[in-house]
Amino acid sequence: MHRTIKTTGLNCPNCAGKIEQAINQLAWIQTASVNIATQEITLQTSETPTQDHLKEIQQIVLSYEPDVTVYIEPQSQDSLESLEPQQKNKLIQIISASLLLAIGVFLLYKAPGFSRLTFILLLMAYLIAGLDVITAALKNITRGVWFDEHFLMAVATLGAFAIGEYVEAVAVMVFYKVGEYFQDAAVDQSRASITALMDIQPTIARVERSSGTIEISPENVQIGEILQVRPGEKIPLDGEVIEGESQVDTSALTGESRLTRLTPGDTALSGCINQTGLLRIRVTELYQDSTVRKIIELVEHAANRKAPTERLMTKFSKYYTPIVVFVALFLAVIPPLFLQQDWSEWLRRACTFLVISCPCALVISIPLTFYGGIGAASKQGVLVKGGNYLEALSQVRTVVFDKTGTLTAGQFQVRHLIPVEGISEEQLLELAAIAEQHSNHPIAESIRQAYHQEVASVSLDQIEEVAGKGLRVQYQGHSLLVGNATLLEEAGVSFNPCNDSGTKVYVAYQGQSLGVIVIDDALKPDSITAIDQLRTLGIDQCIMLTGDNEQTAQSTAKTLELDRYYAQLLPEDKVLLMEQISKDLPIDHKVAFVGDGINDAPVLARADLGVAMGALGSDAAIEAADIVLMTDEPSKLAQAIQISQKSKRIAYQNILFALGVKLLFLILGALGLTSMWLAVFADVGVALIAVFNARRMIR
């Protein structure tokens, strides 16, 4: 059973990780994932969740994050509570504490020495700013969770109070809350930017019913109903155009700015914008199965599949925080005990050390970087199913392409006919068209189109499609073969091999060869550009696998300047070759296979990364692949790799920057060369800089 629970105000990745861990320990939960980018909790359960089950989830979330709102009932996006009241309350809290702190400092300036009034003002400021931090730390301790940012800040500031550093303790807590406020705001802005990239979901559908044309939610439209879509409106659901002609903007789905013409009989996809004429569309898919809904769900849920770097940072923070706490304890105790040093000085250094040590910059910015990369890719018409696949793209060094429909247009045309003596071209083409009359293969369609006549609905017996070879049928009591040379060889039919480039379709009837049909499939306009771009990005090998004959494969490979090619392959041969190619590469080199997503599903599944080409609206392609290119352009793969490399580069920038600054300040703090005020910068300041750096992926 799958269930998604919405939340608002969930901005802390560290807390989200603890919530996820606690929910996964529940008996009725199979898997749970908490996603701060979409503020959703995704549950896979062993039974249908009851209200008591959902309230149990709600209590777990609130125990870690009291300010978060959890919606245990399904909510529309419009009905979700705004974050503004929460942010407003935090701002009031910060301003109140800052004013009390300022008055306390002013009184100290006018009359040095702590009076009762000054102490009360500073204590009030501390409680206003830090009571929720201390409460959260105590709650976590009762659950056995000691080492988190609440614990670090509580111990550090209470320690400062213990040695009489009242102003410093209050200032550190206030600055921490200021940093947390701006950090939450930055995360919210990043989330809003990512959400805007996916703002392609139509909100209304204009439906023709017996009472007239009405406007309703797309969720309430049934298959078979008729939609009216006016110029300037988004197509709300997938369907077939039954009336009207128009140009539509598909850029929201494909990243392409050029318009596509729709006429009666064409498929209209949800999320596209109607530009010029009124369209009447018969609905063929329910809202939950529509193209636009699938795209949004793919991008939203992609953050649940964490990149290796994200998982590494989660593990790192799990061990890092306890280590620095014990180092701080060492600083506070060992020098005064064994070196007769001043207790208050070393306690101050230990408190400074604790403030610096919080790993917020890493646990917040790294997930945002990869989620931003996924959003940026979707804007370019590339669907990446998870951060793990986005990061793996940056490690791809070998790209293996299918030929037909991937590097070539997949629009076959009969180039010429070579009948044997005594057989006319018309007879050769007619028999081939008869055999292929029920096939939907592109080669079969090209033969029927070249025939220029309606193929009579001739009764065929024992129709057998031989995978990777062609068709064997019984026509008028005799065997009719239409396929490649292997098909005729296996049937014992002698023929004259054709050495022309292109796809050769041999025809044999009554055990005699009738000739060959040569079919050509042109390269896509940007295939050469795509190969050049991939090499520029560091791809070592570009390889082609095809079921076509040797001459055709060689011609295509030579034109594209591919490193290798393999011809006359059956589907199972491609899988074996993919395994061999992967085996011959270093362990840190990934192999991507690019295919049409339907015929090549086994190879897509076997590759390190399966990339489906031209898969707009194709269920099979979206299901089989790890990455879906929403247009027929192989150059989109180069764009995806560029985005992947940039995401990884920014993630590593943040890691090195955050660890470098923190290490510097930890050393300075241990030596007593920095104050707790500067320690706050090393914590929240670095986190803010890292978050803003991560937001570069979204722009």
Output the keywords.
Calcium-transporting ATPase, cytoplasmic transduction domain A, 699 residues, six-stranded antiparallel beta sheet, alpha+beta, Rossmann fold, Alpha-Beta Plaits, 50% helix, 26 strands, 23 helices, seven-stranded mixed beta sheet
List the helices and strands and how they pair.
Blueprint: E1 2-8, H1 13-24, E2 29-35, E3 40-45, H2 51-64, E4 69-71, H3 84-110, H4 116-142, H5 149-162, H6 166-197, E5 205-209, E6 212-216, E7 226-229, E8 239-243, E9 246-249, H7 251-254, E10 259-262, E11 267-268, E12 273-274, E13 279-283, H8 291-301, H9 308-338, H10 343-357, H11 360-379, E14 382-384, H12 387-393, E15 396-402, H13 403-407, E16 413-419, H14 425-435, H15 442-451, E17 461-466, E18 470-475, E19 478-483, H16 485-490, E20 503-509, E21 512-520, H17 527-536, E22 541-545, H18 550-560, E23 564-566, H19 571-583, E24 590-595, H20 601-606, E25 609-612, H21 619-624, E26 627-629, H22 635-670, H23 676-694
Parallel strand pairs: 15-22, 15-24, 22-23, 24-25, 25-26
Antiparallel strand pairs: 1-3, 1-4, 2-3, 5-6, 5-7, 7-13, 8-11, 8-13, 9-10, 9-12, 14-26, 16-21, 17-18, 18-19, 19-20, 20-21
Transmembrane segments: 91-109, 116-138, 150-176, 319-338, 350-371, 650-670, 676-694
Catalytic activity: Cd(2+)(in) + ATP + H2O = Cd(2+)(out) + ADP + phosphate + H(+)
Subcellular location: Cell membrane
